[in-house]
Amino acid sequence: MFIDVSNLKKSYPSGVVITEVLKGIGMKLEKREIGVILGPSGSGKSTLMNIIGGIDRCDSGRVIVDGIEVNDLNDDRLIDYRREHVGFVFQFYNLVPDLTVGENIEVVSNISKSPLNTDEVLTAVEMRDKKYRFPRELSGGEQQRVSIARAIVKNPKLLLCDEPTGALDYDTSRSILRLLQQVNQKYGTTILMITHNAAIAAMANRVFKLRSGEIVEETVNQTIVPAERIEW
Ligand code: ADP
Ligand code: MG
């Protein structure tokens, strides 16, 4: 099993009250699969993803990614895990405004040791001709393509996408989701994606429904819908 999460719990203090945001999550994903976490705002999706990606820590439970017991890593090793193995894509792209497209990819640490180079990933996301543009000169969909290029330049084992189409119109969303399916196929990258849009679940191998910090349903899709055919 590539991702193996069991009995994961996380609480945040809010004033004098402690809110349990994840209440004993269990989920598994095989290597090269696409998993979707589906749930309403505030259900704990980002918290779960951030713990799997080593941005945040759990209070208890286990998170194993490709044999690495993430919950056991000390702070330095957690940073190494994140840098070496995980790519992140966020809703609002998180590009550096003062850097060109190419430079945004080259800010990735240890880029010289990356298995892929800037031109390769820009070609993969069909943005090679925009290498010297600035983020403000690009549409939202194009900015998201660049952020995907940045996330995959290290050829991470795991790509975590937090509402990657949350700020995009339906047609652009389809093309970004299609790109993620292509990355999954071409590089064999395991992808875990967050969404509150149930239609997106059709393109995944496994779907985890999250409600108030609990997985209330898991679906295994027998047929995967190519993203360009998602019906909204
Ligand atoms: P989702 O991504 O599903 O919208 P989140 O995981 O972002 O949900 O948040 C789940 C709950 O945890 C929310 O009620 C949110 O306010 C709370 N929360 C998230 N991060 C923090 C934090 N760093 N400190 C305190 N509360 C937090
Ligand atoms: Mg969120």
UniProtKB/TrEMBL annotation:
Gene3D superfamilies: P-loop containing nucleotide triphosphate hydrolases. SMART domains: AAA. The keyword Calcium does not apply. It holds the Pfam family ABC_tran. Residues 3-232 form the ABC transporter domain. Keywords: ATP-binding, Nucleotide-binding, Transport. GO terms for molecular function: ATP binding; ATP hydrolysis activity; transmembrane transporter activity. The keyword ATP-binding applies. One of its GO terms (cellular component) is membrane protein complex. InterPro entries: AAA+_ATPase (IPR003593), ABC_transporter-like_ATP-bd (IPR003439), ABC_transporter-like_CS (IPR017871), MacB-like_ATP-bd (IPR017911), P-loop_NTPase (IPR027417). Belongs to the ABC transporter superfamily. This is Putative ABC transport system ATP-binding protein.
